[in-house]
Amino acid sequence: MAAYLADRTHRQVKLRELAERFNFHPNYIVELFRRHTGTTPIRYHQSLRLAKAKEALEFTGSTVSEIAEALGWSLPYFSRVFLQAEGMPPSAYRDDLKTALGRDIVLESSFVNDWRVFADRDSRPDG
């Protein structure tokens, strides 16, 4: 189930979808997942999506809007979720990284291409 969630960081996954996919009652899925991970599947999935967002903010030149869209979030919702999780808006997070580093990071083209592939995944119907 964790792998299923990790493969779908480009969009929202609902508990109903997990129940149908894994053929369990939604309450049992939450109980089982929490027992093994200490969190709910939806919170786990959100943390994976936020980790992707932080990675994109750190290592790409994509705008905050582009990152939100690639992860299947509206910009206002993404900003709110990010602020709640990190204590600052996504743009401030990126600015703090630049200040801390004191220089721009030069990325290898293979990494940038990998991010573009990830960002394009949201255009597929069911990832």
Descriptive overview:
The protein has a single domain, classed as Arc Repressor Mutant, subunit A (Orthogonal Bundle), CATH 1.10.10.60. Helices cover 69% and strands 0% of the residues. The protein starts with a helix and ends in a 7-residue tail after the last helix. The longest helix is centred in the middle third of the chain and has 19 residues. It is an all-alpha fold. The radius of gyration is 16 Å and the shape is globular. It contains eight helices and no strands. It holds the Pfam family HTH_18. InterPro entries: Homeodomain-like_sf, HTH_AraC. GO terms for molecular function: DNA-binding transcription factor activity; sequence-specific DNA binding. This is AraC family transcriptional regulator. Keywords: DNA-binding, Transcription, Transcription regulation.
Short description:
The chain is mainly alpha-helical and 127 residues long. 69% of the residues lie in helices and 0% in strands.
